[in-house]
Amino acid sequence: MEVTINNIRKEFDRFPALNDVSLKIASGELIALLGPSGSGKTTLLRLIAGLDFPTSGKIFFGDQDASHHSVQERNVGFVFQHYALFRHMTVAENIGFGLKVRPAASRPPKTEIRRRVSELLDMVQLSGLEKRYPNQLSGGQRQRVALARAMAIEPRILLLDEPFGALDAKVRKELRRWLREFHDRTGHTTVFVTHDQEEALELADRVVVMSQGKIEQVGSADDVYDRPGSPFVFSFIGESSQLPVEVRDGTMLFQGQPIGIAEAGDGAGELFFRPEDVTLVDAPDALFGKVTACRRLAGTRIAEIDIANDGHAPYHVEVEVPLHAPIELGSETRFRPTRWKVFRK
Amino acid sequence: MSEDTRTALGKPPAFRNPADERPLAKILLIGLALVFLAFFLLLPLVSVFVEAFRKGWSEYYEALIEPDAAAAIRLTLLVAAISVPLNLVFGLCASWAIAKFEFKGKSFLITLIDLPFSISPVISGLVYVLLFGSNSLLGPILKSQGITILFAVPGIVLATVFVTFPFVARELIPLMEDQGTGDEEAALSLGASGWQTFLYVTLPNIKWGLLYGVLLCNARAMGEFGAVSVVSGHIRGLTNTMPLHVEILYNEYNFVAAFAVASLLALLALVTLALKTLLELRFGAGAAGGRH
To answer: Are residues A286 and A192 in the same domain?
Structure first.
């Protein structure tokens, strides 16, 4: 099911939680809504589900305007952050709930419900646990019960709110891979909300980066990491450092001094670069500062460098250095970004 | 610590929880509480039953089947049977509204629910006298329609409903607020209607808290004296509830009968207490609310 979101605005007590958001989700796509808390990602998910209604704007399911359809009419599978399993029902009853509450005309007979439940349990690899209650399950198992329950109603689209938020790191990684396989197998259009960029980048076909009620960028993992479209995306995704610079006659100046890299278009701006896109140089026209700390990070070493700022608090940048580079604490180090981006003021 | 020093010092001092009191203080505190409870609660309770059975079983039984006493018991049961379900519904609605929705005047509504707790029951009764009495605005109109409120069953029910209103709501509001709306949203997203959601999801989630609230509400409804006393008119065999009947009998120096009826009320209190304890044992302090 293709979902189109047109100029959605959502206000809570006059405060806009979403501001003019538009997004097109292709059928069968796995999409991540990524952003810090308060960015409006969960609000957007709830609007798609019909658990909240937009102040203005429209939501289409296929060609159908679903803006005023209730959550029941939209027929979406929603997996809640804390699963919201019905604690007084067994696993089987939880999964069968959506079928049981259907109007008599479309309700499958009991035996059929039982068959479907065991099929779904198979699919989420929980066969044998149908008689358990939610509080007798581990976090990862609850997660999968919630997913099976949402899938039972044959939803047109699957929505997951922080699906791995409440799990420990190991289970999270396993389930992440499992969800990807699950998606590839069932082919459902899936939207999930996360604040974990690693999760979003690894799992999703496309990542929607959100901040302060707006979509900052939509793109593949490569797009948002390698070609960030805004200062926010650059600093939110991955590690980065930023410095105020000025471009004059095709040369970049930092604190009025050339730093040895070329950039087109004159004017002031903000220079962004990632720790791994830096090379140490021995030249006068480069950035330089004092190494304040050095830490080992897997196969590399990260040096923290303070660049003096004329009496103000120094600029703090992080650069990746070779393991055997002659870096000493307190020593002055010269470096240049090899890949960078300047966002104009 | 080496072997030598340990023997030199003898046994290491027993671990003592820093939050614990000294043994003497502990005994004193517990003793004080027990003595207080024995004097102020247990002794009066025991004396009720002793007085009731002073002249034996048959006298006790006679006192209870005496027509006026039987009428009082019936009336009390009737009033409870009307007012408890009413407050069950009101309390459920009010706590649902407060716990699951945001709206203007919410804190005012919460204060309003607590009102019967904070004013004297006699005043609650008087309010109805002022509202429905013969000198009031409504009184003559209702009278011309042949409806009597005061000094009749409707008045007693109204006063009882008023006084017992907070019990169910007070029990449910914190419980429902704690549970939030996640389960309901899940049910709705699975296609359940509002009514199905309430029946299959909300109600099972709050049933023990609800039962607890109803128990307390019922105990109070049957035992209410002040408010009912003002609106009842004390007509023997007609508008006397059990507590009122006890007072009348007592004032007539008919102690055995007075205590016999009183013993029923005391028994109700004990049964309520036992059920409440059972609920808490079975479903943990959280389920029964543990407030008040």
So the answer is: no
